[in-house]
């Protein structure tokens, strides 16, 4: 259990999102840089990353957050701030920028199956076509 001045909580969220056009760009140095930026954001916003998996074509974040932060706010933070920070620090030209696809998957505490993540990714791929 965690506490704030006015709440005791145990709120954990799974958030999954994709690079634009589901490109497999999250590899090697790009993946490491994005991972570091996500930890910076979590630290700045007062949330705890329980688990973070950066795959070439998606990011799976398991985070604990105080009740004042809605899952939609968390998703917007990690997507928006991470792309801005990455592109400001590392993008030399148009091809090296990190851009996220619209939307995300959000689930509450517990185990999210790989099938659920794959279903989200597949549905997003169908929307792109």
Mean of all residue-level pLDDT scores: 88
* Global structural class: alpha+beta
Write the H/E string, N to C: EEEHEEHEH
How would a textbook summarize the main sheet? 4 strands, antiparallel
Rg from Cα:
15 Å
Number of strands: 6
How much beta, percentage-wise?
15-25%
| Overall spatial form | globular
Biggest sheet strand line-up: 4-5-3-6
Query: How many helices does DSSP assign?
Result: 3
Low-pLDDT stretches are none
Query: End-to-end distance, in Å?
Result: 44 Å
Which range best describes the helical content: under 10%, 10-25%, 25-40%, 40-55%, 55-70% or over 70%?
40-55%
Which descriptors would you attach to this protein?
129 residues, alpha+beta, two-stranded antiparallel ribbon
Architecture blueprint of SSEs:
Blueprint: E1 2-3, E2 8-9, E3 12-17, H1 28-45, E4 48-55, E5 58-64, H2 71-90, E6 105-108, H3 114-128
Antiparallel strand pairs: 1-2, 3-5, 3-6, 4-5
What does this structure look like?
The protein has 129 residues and is of the alpha+beta class. It is 41% helix and 22% strand. It has three helices and six strands. It has helices spanning 28-45, 71-90, 114-128; strands at 2-3, 8-9, 12-17, 48-55, 58-64, 105-108. It has a four-stranded antiparallel sheet with strand order 4-5-3-6, with helices on both faces. Strands 1-2 form a two-stranded antiparallel ribbon. Helix 1 packs across helix 2 (71-90). The protein starts with a strand and ends with a helix. The mean pLDDT is 88.
In short:
With 129 residues, the protein is α+β, with helices and mostly antiparallel strands. Helix content is 41%, strand content 22%. The model has no long low-confidence stretch (mean pLDDT 88).
């Amino acid at each position: 259990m965690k506490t704030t001045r006015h709440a005791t909580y145990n709120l954990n969220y799974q958030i999954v999102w994709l690079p634009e056009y589901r490109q497999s760009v999250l590899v090697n140095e790009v993946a490491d840089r994005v991972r570091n930026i996500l930890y910076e954001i979590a630290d700045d916003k007062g949330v705890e990353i329980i688990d973070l998996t950066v795959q070439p074509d998606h990011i799976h974040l398991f985070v604990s957050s105080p009740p004042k932060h809605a899952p939609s706010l968390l998703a917007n933070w990690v997507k928006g701030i991470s792309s801005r920070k990455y592109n400001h620090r590392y993008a030399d030209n148009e091809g090296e920028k990190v851009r996220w696809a619209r939307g995300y998957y959000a689930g509450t505490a517990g185990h999210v199956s790989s099938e659920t993540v794959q279903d989200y990714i597949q549905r997003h791929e169908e929307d792109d076509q």
